[in-house]
Design brief:
The complex is a heterodimer of chains A (about 325) and B (about 375).
Chain A: H1 3-11, H2 17-27, E1 32-33, H3 35-64, H4 66-87, H5 103-125, H6 134-150, H7 153-166, H8 182-202, H9 210-231, H10 236-256, H11 260-281, H12 285-309
Chain B: H1 6-23, H2 29-38, H3 48-72, H4 78-101, H5 110-129, H6 137-157, H7 160-172, H8 181-202, H9 212-230, H10 251-275, H11 278-299, H12 307-327, E1 333-334, E2 337-338, H13 346-355
Antiparallel strand pairs in B: 1-2
The chains are: A mainly alpha (about 325), B mainly alpha (about 375).
Chain lengths: ~325, ~375
């Protein structure tokens, strides 16, 4: 920013002398924050550590011995959670600021180690027998409790992905995969996630978490419905009806609460699903291309209208 | 040449800064609203998410319209197809220009997609025209058009990503002459280093100039592309994506690139800290991580499962060490650097928290089927085999 503008604002009384000094220093890059970069390093460091710990323990436990592994994991857990419980601010249902720079990441690390530990115990001792996958549900519940106690969005996301794993879903980068019987599981998962988000929101518990729940639920539900439409089969029209309804809800809610990302989810998933049905029925390439031109133009027009009605220029 | 006035460009960028400062608490919400109103322009802008969707559907329309034209007319001659592609390219560019100059669109998605599609069509048309001329001529001509097109899009509309996309096209020209791999890579790196030199020579000297951020992005992007050209083991990081490639060139070149790959992040970090250049700083932090990740494959050493633990401890130590060192300085700053939030984009951390749901985390497989960690179902705590 040109500092002359800041000078003019200061002269006009729009900003105080203190603000003028700080903002001028930032604009001139005399004051340079590396807060984001340090956070990114911490996040990557914690993830890398947890990855390595998982690989080492799962790959080498026979050489290390169960006792040594459990002792190591126990010490790490004690360190992480000892730190968190001793430093945490008292619980409050509203947003609670993190008590320190590293606090959120120590909690995230501790949560990841909980998963490694539970997984290791299940592998080695088979406590749950054929119901081994219930350790995922237990992990998800522990993460959710930790996320609410310490107001941590990273751990909440971990809880949601682990719950998804218990439902049999893959929610990994480049591996979002829903097929066959998984679609019903995906819809059930999305319903549970959405219900949990809305319920905690109604109870006024960490209302700022709601958006995370809704992002996950909307994507999983719409992807499951769209994949059902694309896969074809006898029930494709049922999937299509469901997709149109869900997309409509996402668009309507997105417009109503001015959350355009949900409008986009509704438009994109809806367009892909509906177009796959229409293009499947059109055997002629020319007609197919004409459909794309007309439908894409219609989408652009509709988005422009929606955006203008909600006060956003488009 | 530029379709937008300097005052408009400055106001748009200053609006973004005022918004960031308000979000960071450096300005009160009332001040933010008042100052933003003062910076309002008559440009038609839209929400960033909507911008992407509008761009996607516009590109879809252009692609389908061109396809529709060719399916309607069965044209055999490549020259005529090339001319038709050029025609569509110029039409596309013309409409984009009209939307900007007549309707005052600014980063609206539609005009951006039209302009980018216009250059893409000119590039394909050119490649097709020179297809029969001789080896590599089509590639040379097409890439040259793409580079010039990228420069035009930035000069006319200010699309920073157009130059960022033009940089690898310029580098790829070096691979169009049938040169040995090592010479082609070295030549491409020289082209990009030349681009960095040009960027540094041409960038505005006034710290308040709105274009200074654009030039910082060009420089950082060119530096990253030089690194990716020289790091012969970068594909090892993403073997799962099939990007692995072996290098069959001279051993001397191999070790020269190893030294370059080790020194580049250090040099880049030094310059970025000295010049307080955020794009270069972020780029070189990423490059430093890539160097660490590719060090063992470069040296031919076996990877160990505990390697990420060492990396993780290193990263955490650096982050906490730097944070503590800065915090202990006078007023929490040292040399103008601070670990305080200031105008940091806190939305980025919130967004990272949400997308963490995609981080593949480890799980246990049934003990009677256990054959070592193989990825398994996602979720659960810990780490996966293919992180």
């Amino acid at each position: 920013m040109n500092t002359e503008r800041l000078d003019a604002w200061h002269a006009a009384g729009a900003i105080t002398a203190e603000q003028h000094a700080t903002l001028t220093a930032i604009a001139r890059r005399e004051l340079f924050s590396v807060f984001l970069e340090l956070n990114a390093l911490l996040y990557l460091g914690v993830l890398a550590f947890a990855v390595g710990l998982g690989w080492t323990i799962y790959g080498r436990f026979e050489r290390m011995g169960d006792a040594a592994v459990l002792l190591l994991l126990g010490l790490l857990l004690a360190g992480c959670f000892g730190f968190c419980f001793s430093r945490a601010r008292p619980y409050a249902p509203d947003k609670v600021e993190s008590p320190g720079f590293a606090f959120d990441y120590v909690l995230y690390l501790g949560s990841l180690i909980v998963g490694v530990t539970l997984g290791f115990v299940e592998i080695r001792f088979g406590l749950l027998g054929p119901n081994w996958d219930y350790h995922l549900l237990v992990s998800a519940l522990i993460y959710a409790a930790l996320a609410y106690r310490f107001d941590n969005r990273f751990v909440l996301s971990l809880a949601l992905s682990t719950l998804g794993a218990w439902f049999g879903l893959r929610l990994a980068v480049l591996q979002f995969h829903i097929a066959g019987a998984q679609r019903a599981d995906a819809l059930a998962y999305a319903a549970v996630v959405m219900a949990a988000g809305l319920w905690t929101d109604r109870l006024e518990l960490k209302r700022h978490f709601l958006e995370t729940y809704l992002h996950v639920a909307a994507n999983v539900a719409l992807a499951a419905l769209a994949s059902g439409v694309i896969a074809g089969g006898d029930s494709r029209w049922l999937w299509l009806l469901g997709l149109i309804a869900a997309s409509g809800v996402a668009i309507e809610r997105g417009v109503r609460f001015k959350r355009f990302i949900f409008v986009v989810y509704g438009v994109l998933y809806g367009y892909v699903g509906i177009s796959s049905r229409i293009l499947d029925g059109l055997r002629d390439l020319t007609l197919g291309l004409a459909y794309v031109v007309v439908s894409a133009a219609a989408v652009i027009t509709a988005l422009a209208v929606v955006a203008r009605r909600t006060g956003r220029d488009a | 040449m530029r379709a937008y006035s300097r005052a408009d460009e400055e106001s748009v960028r200053d609006q973004a800064r005022v918004r960031a400062w308000t979000a960071a608490g450096l300005l009160s919400p009332e001040q933010g609203t008042a100052l933003e109103a003062e910076l309002r322009t008559d440009l038609r802008r839209t929400h960033v998410v909507l911008r992407g969707v509008l761009a996607f559907f516009t590109a879809l329309i252009v692609a389908a319209a061109v396809g529709l034209f060719f399916t309607g007319l069965s044209i055999e001659s490549r020259a005529i197809v090339a001319v038709v592609l050029w025609f569509f390219g110029f039409v596309s560019l013309g409409i984009a220009d009209g939307l900007v100059t007549q309707m005052r669109f600014y980063r609206h998605g539609i005009e951006e997609a039209l302009a980018v599609c216009g250059i893409a069509l000119l590039t394909f048309g050119t490649m097709l025209l020179f297809d029969d001329v001789g080896s590599h001529v089509d590639g040379q001509a097409g890439l040259a058009v793409a580079v010039l097109g990228g420069i035009y899009l930035y000069a006319r509309f200010g699309f920073v990503y157009a130059i960022v996309a033009a940089l690898p096209c310029a580098a790829a020209l070096a691979f169009q002459f049938g040169l040995p791999d090592s010479i082609a890579r070295a030549s491409a790196a020289l082209v990009l280093l030349g681009a960095i030199g040009a960027t540094r020579a041409l960038r505005p000297r006034d710290a308040g100039d709105y274009r200074i951020g654009d030039y910082a992005v060009f420089q950082a992007a060119a530096w990253v592309f030089v690194y990716l050209l020289l790091n012969l083991r970068v594909g090892d990081v993403w073997r799962d994506l099939g990007l692995y490639s072996s290098f069959e060139g001279e051993r001397g070149f191999y070790w020269i690139t190893y030294v370059a790959v080790c020194l580049m992040p250090i040099a880049g970090l030094t310059v970025s800290i000295r010049e307080r250049d955020r794009p270069l700083l972020i780029a070189n932090l990423a490059l430093a991580l890539l160097t660490l990740a590719t060090n063992k494959p470069y040296l031919g050493w076996p990877r160990q499962p505990w390697d990420p633990i060492i990396l993780g401890v290193l990263l955490v130590t650096i982050a906490l060490g730097v944070r503590r060192w800065l915090a202990r300085g006078p007023n929490g700053t040292r040399g103008g650097f601070t670990a305080e939030k200031l105008d940091a984009n806190l939305d980025a951390i919130r967004y990272l928290g949400t997308v963490s749901v995609l981080v593949k985390t480890p799980t246990a497989a049934p003990s009677d089927h256990w054959k070592g960690f193989q990825g398994g179902r996602s979720g659960g705590g810990g780490a996966s085999g293919d992180f």
